[in-house]
DUF4230 domain-containing protein
Amino acid sequence: MNSGKFKIVLWSLGILMVVFLGFFLYQMTQSNSVNSMMTVLMLLLGLVLGGIIAFLASKKLTAEPAVITESSHTIAESMRKVFKVVSAEGHFNEIYNYEETTKIFNFIPSKKKALVIVQAKVLVGYDFEKFKWEIDEQNRKVKLLNFPAPEILSTETDYKYYNIEEQFFNLFSKDDLAKIQQNGKQQVIEAAKKSHLPEVAAEQMRTLLTELLAGKNFFLENANVISESKNRIEYRSPSINDFSKE
């Protein structure tokens, strides 16, 4: 039933109530008892309340939709060209347990703790800007003079908090949450370094360069340095400010 038909029904019911009340009032005026007057007052009060409810219901049905105004401003801080290749991807679930105990007034112990599940996707690859090689056109060979270590190029994290316990005088602050996220993410980084991701990234890069050069009839002379690079994985340690921007 649409709002127009519903309004018609409400007005019809209202008119019927008025007619019925008028007839009833006429009957009540034939009696002078106190009970009859109280009945009339209660009926009048019920009629007023019913009219208010019907009016509010009618207004609710005919109310205009809310007007939502949104705005967004994007500022590009810096842009530059890069040549970084992702050669391995890993997914990690880390359990991070945070607990902090302080003393209120230097003698009342107060504890807060949280259990955090860190779900992360880690991308490992190489920055081609750091490559240095020597080309032997005559013998169709390429020799790697400097081959960088694989890098953790990106870490996408999601945090789920469990068993959060805090006390009135020892609550979690914004800095505490940023510290928890930073430490949890650092655990993922350390786990990624110790995993097989660097090895997978190095072997993928070795295959990629070998096949690219073979397509040009070149031979990669010292491909072993690529495999050796897996032991020197690099990652820039994030600061608390980095996490506050995520």
